[in-house]
Amino acid sequence: MVYIPQEDGQGLVEYGLILVLVAIVVVIVLTLVGTQISQVFSRVADSIPGGG
């Protein structure tokens, strides 16, 4: 009998780790850039007549 390794679970774990890493990077980027984006939206909203 030949042993054939099962790698399905390993691939799933790798995809999960990649997803977690991407989520962490997104949270860090939004934390660092979030206030700047908020200021841009505030300026745009203030420049629209009747928007404020």
Please report the total strand number as a whole number: 0
Shape: rod-shaped
The major β-sheet equals: none
Strand content: under 5%
SSE string, helix = H, strand = E? H
Q: Name the helicity range.
A: over 70%
Structural class: mainly alpha
How many helices does DSSP assign?
Answer: 1
Work out the radius of gyration: 23 Å
**First-residue to last-residue Cα separation:** 75 Å
Uncertain ranges: none
* Average pLDDT metric: 86
Describe the protein's architecture and organization.
The structure is a single chain. The chain is mostly helical and 52 residues long. 77% of the residues lie in helices and 0% in strands. The protein contains 1 helix and no strands. The radius of gyration is 23 Å and the shape is rod-shaped. The model has no long low-confidence stretch (mean pLDDT 86).
Please supply descriptive tags for the structure shown above.
52 residues; mainly alpha; 0% strand
What is the topology?
Elements (H helix, E strand, L loop, with lengths): L7 H40 L5
Short description:
This protein is mostly helical. The protein is built from one helix and no strands. The termini are far apart.
